[in-house]
Write a structure and sequence with these properties.
By secondary structure, this protein is of the alpha/beta class. The chain has twelve helices and 14 strands. It has a six-stranded mixed beta sheet, with helices on both faces. Strands 2-1-4-5 form a four-stranded antiparallel beta sheet, with helices on one face. Strand 12 and strand 13 form a beta hairpin. The chain is elongated. The two termini are 32 Å apart.
Length: 323
Amino acid sequence: MENAIMHTKDLRKHFGDVAALNGLDLVVPPHVVYGLLGPNGAGKSTTLKILSTLTRPSGGQAVVGGFDVARDPGEVRKVIGLAGQDATLDDKLTARENLRIFGRLSRLGARGARRRADELLERFSLDHAGNRLVGTYSGGMRRRLDLIASLLRAPKVLFLDEPTTGLDVRSRMEIWDTVRELVAEGATVLLTTQYLEEVDQLASTVGVIDHGQLIAEGSPAQLKSRIGSHIDVVVESSDHLASAVSVLESLTGRRPEVDGSRITVAAVDAVPSLPQIVRELDASGAAIRDVGIRQPSLDDVFLSLTGKTVDSEKSLEVQEAVA
């Protein structure tokens, strides 16, 4: 497809009677971070594995960097890098030794592998620890090194599968900065993650898949606009719930949801002003502890689209392993 670094058309993958992908159509433009989201078993990990040539599709088409993943997997591998959920590093080797081995496996040659390993360690501020055993690295350093290993061939397309799982905030932000730098230099990143804040921070486009199909796509702001704002009210006691619920239903035309002492109602259309909400609640006699208008998050979008929360487990991965 014109102006697409990768795309799929009617992509399908079956594991026995289970349809992991059921006609997925995806178009990813170059030089962006594309966030791929989906609930447990939706097919996002299967999609990534097909695009990175780790598994073959059952039907349809997938093209990466101009090459068909089924017909030209070798050519696809020349233009991609992959950093999976689990680091592929050898704890008993140093970082530099690990990278040189990966470089040789990537056919850079002995001299090219040494040069590229040194270059990347320096660029990503790990040169000071390049001769340390990887087994002594912190979680954040290991993930950064795993990301570096995926960059040895300077890929046009980088697949990141849960790149910051288990990292602390500082380490996560370091990975984010690295991803931004790579995109600024011309790379395209396909990102799957359980941290929706990560997608909000990095992705210019988000695709949501469920039951093996794309069900929504757009920028984070566009997806949030589908949900609209929410009015949150916290009452002092249950005695004031009924009157507060009545006020909010009258203002919005929607039935609020009650969770303990908190009342929430969507306000997709014209959102009443906060002073108006406070005046109406005060006039009703409801004793209010807190009131505010909350903008939706990607978590709200995800729940609205799929009816599920983000789950880091991937049941289909188990099925793939035994398929």
